[in-house]
Amino acid sequence: MFSLEGKVALVTGATGGIGAEIARALHRQGAKVALSGTRKEVLETLAAELEGALVAPANLSDPAAPAALVEQVEAAFGKLDILVNNAGFTRDGLAMRMADKDWSDVLEVDLTAPFRLARAAMRGMMKRRTGRIISIASIVGVTGNPGQANYAAAKAGLIGMSKSLAQELASRGITVNVVAPGFIATPMTDALNDQQKARLMERIPMGRMGEAADIAAAVAYLSSDEAGWVTGATHHVNGGMAMI
Amino acid sequence: MSDTADKVKKIVVEHLGVEEAKVTSEASFIDDLGADSLDTVELVMAFEEAFGVEIPDDAAEKITTVKDAIDYIEAQKAA
């Protein structure tokens, strides 16, 4: 079950904790993987683990980068079956103090780039009548979070975008879904202090932070042929922190 | 029949999976050939690729029949 043998997947933000684990999971299920991110050396280290992986560095704040990235993957592997929009970053601050650029930079990379990637990827998928577009959002895209108006807006935007694309592309066998992680142990959340972590833990019924593998498993499922009837859905993987 | 017309009709047959005989010059993609809005976008993209022309959105909207497509592409090629 859930075999991805013969499929080609592109994972953006594969330099991050969650992205790398997603790439590993898809590769384990048999997919050929293209790894994108801004730090080439980190991608190369990961590629050394994953036989046949393509290293495809890209700066997604460049408007031309998404289409070029999809083209590169299609040129290397002949097609793209699974797009995983995982790249994203935060620039937190209370709204009162949030500069326009903090807002627009986050929106550009976390929301606009995924749209451009999806638009570029859907062309080949439509022709082949099959495809998977999976975006990694966040629990805060649904619940909100003080200090993260920009990030939460971008992540909520991914959900709305995915539901629209899901309706546009369903008749072509393409599913479009979202995975919304809760608090995952990564370098991004390591930056929290102990007190912040303890307070977080009280809100997670499962009593632990999530692992990148918890997210990767959901992505692997949504990538599979078996998930062909799941579209426009947001999968919350958050240890019970928000039951929505 | 011109090469352009031949090629256009072939693309329509392939993309919409309709019988060649149904693809007359007057045939409307949506009303006669059963295309949906996504099909028409795909057709326009296929024409762009096959003929190396750019069909902007406002022009694409006016291409509703096989003849519209042939005329537009021939005009572009002549220009």
Automatic annotation (TrEMBL), chain A:
Native source species:
Teichococcus aerophilus
Specify one Pfam family. adh_short_C2
Subunit annotation: Homotetramer.
Which UniProt keywords are present, listed alphabetically?
Answer: Fatty acid biosynthesis, Fatty acid metabolism, Lipid biosynthesis, Lipid metabolism, NADP, Oxidoreductase
Give a yes or no for keyword Oxidoreductase in this entry: yes
- Asked if the keyword NADP belongs to this entry, the reply reads yes
Spell out the protein name for this chain. 3-oxoacyl-[acyl-carrier-protein] reductase
SMART domains (alphabetical): PKS_KR
One GO MF annotation is: 3-oxoacyl-[acyl-carrier-protein] reductase (NADPH) activity
Ranges for the Ketoreductase domain? 7-187
UniProtKB/TrEMBL annotation, chain B:
After translation, the protein is modified as follows:
4'-phosphopantetheine is transferred from CoA to a specific serine of apo-ACP by acpS.
Outline the extent of the Carrier domain: 2-77
Keyword match Phosphoprotein:
yes
Subcellular locations according to the entry: Cytoplasm
The UniProt entry's sequence similarity note says:
Belongs to the acyl carrier protein (ACP) family.
Q: Which UniProt keywords apply?
A: Cytoplasm, Fatty acid biosynthesis, Fatty acid metabolism, Lipid biosynthesis, Lipid metabolism, Phosphopantetheine, Phosphoprotein
State what protein this is by name.
Answer: Acyl carrier protein
